[in-house]
Specification:
There is one protein chain. By secondary structure, the protein is of the alpha/beta class. It has one domain: Glycosidases (TIM Barrel, Alpha-Beta Barrel). 43% of the residues lie in helices and 15% in strands. It is built from twelve helices and ten strands. Strands 1, 2, 3, 4, 5, 6, 7, 8, 9 and 10 form a ten-stranded mixed beta sheet that branches. α3 links the parallel β1 and β2. The longest helix is centred in the last third of the chain and has 19 residues. The radius of gyration is 19 Å and the shape is globular. About 10% of the residues have low confidence. It comes from Paractinoplanes durhamensis. Keywords: Signal. This is Chitinase.
Length: 328
């Protein structure tokens, strides 16, 4: 599948290069071209720390049926140059990471390539727009993917990112997700994050907006707090894309809770996640993800945040099994 997606992307690139609108500079034409060709992202794609190797992809698929994953994170190298790497420590074509990606391919799964994250040096902050587009495409090609997730948790220059994303989407019809942390249960997105979405709209991008509904202080039941925070983000997105119906806004939304212990709020239990998914089904949310499959086990119950376990009592892969049943 990795090879097939790379070939498909190359075909889209060839078609786009032959288009009379390719160099027109017309934003409306670019929007139409991108939207018409955009690849449909997997509905359910939990995050996996692909560098750590602490999640057994084959075992997860056997136990849950889950095949699609968001591979995190592509960032700049340790020298802070515009060189895409996995986690800042492994080359983008590293064979050990490649072996993990092969396991996803072996279960007929798709990979969403996720850049950015909480730590590390962002490519988005050290590359020019042209370099950034090339870095995105290199990471996608290595993963055999046409699904790109830009996780923005640091200060960035929106214009650089949107120019790069426009280049990539127009060239190959890439599905693009903008992942943004919530500012609070009733706050939704911050003004800075709303400005990023406005930049995406102004650039004519076809995007998924992924709300990181984690690490905020909630009131009352945590499951309800997750849905309230999502509603706040939905209102923000509707304010930017004011020409869309409510159903269309919900359909372009994704949500990503942090399973188990959170730095703030939570913990997100299986019951809380069930509440969230029932809400998502009712509203018609287009996509669901969670952080992370590496934590989806009951190996620690100390209520502390760990990259290897959820910090709560749970059955192994309980969250993956639950999310895998979501159909939108």
């Amino acid at each position: 599948m990795r090879a097939h997606l790379a070939v498909a992307a190359a075909l889209v690139l060839t078609i786009a290069g032959c288009s009379g609108d390719a160099d027109s500079g017309d934003a409306g034409s670019a929007t139409t071209s991108a939207s018409a060709a955009a690849t449909s992202a997997p509905i359910v794609a939990p995050y996996i720390d692909i560098v750590s190797g602490t999640a057994d992809i084959t075992a997860i698929h056997t136990a849950t049926g889950q095949a699609d994953f968001s591979a995190a994170f592509v960032v700049a190298d340790s020298a802070k140059t515009c060189t895409p790497t996995w986690g800042g420590t492994k080359a983008i074509d590293d064979s050990t990471v490649g072996a993990e990606l092969d396991k996803i391919e072996a279960v007929d799964g798709d990979v969403i390539v996720s850049t950015g994250g909480e730590t590390g040096t962002y490519l988005e902050n050290v590359c020019s727009a042209t370099e950034l587009a090339a870095a995105y495409e290199k990471a996608l090609d290595v993963a055999g993917s046409n699904y790109l997730d830009v996780d923005i948790e640091q200060t960035v220059t929106a214009a650089t990112i949107m120019t790069a994303l426009s280049t990539v989407q127009k060239a190959r019809g890439t599905s693009i997700t903008l992942t943004l942390p919530v500012g609070g249960e009733s706050v939704g997105l911050t003004d800075t994050e709303i400005a990023i979405l406005q930049s995406a709209k102004d650039a004519g991008l076809d995007v998924i907006v992924n709300a990181m509904i984690m690490n905020f202080t909630g009131t009352g039941a945590w499951g309800t707090a997750l849905t309230t925070a999502t509603e706040s983000v939905k209102a923000d997105v509707a304010g930017v894309w004011s020409d869309l119906t409510d159903a269309e806004v919900y359909a372009m939304l994704a949500v990503t809770p942090m399973i188990g212990a959170n730095g703030l709020g939570g913990p997100t239990t299986v019951a809380n996640a069930t509440t969230l998914l029932a809400y998502a089904k009712e509203k018609g949310l287009g996509f669901v993800r969670f952080w992370s499959v590496n934590r989806d086990n009951g190996d620690c119950t100390d209520a502390k945040v760990s990259s290897k376990c959820s910090g709560i009592s749970q059955d192994e892969y309980a969250f993956t099994k639950l999310f895998a049943g979501y159909t939108g």
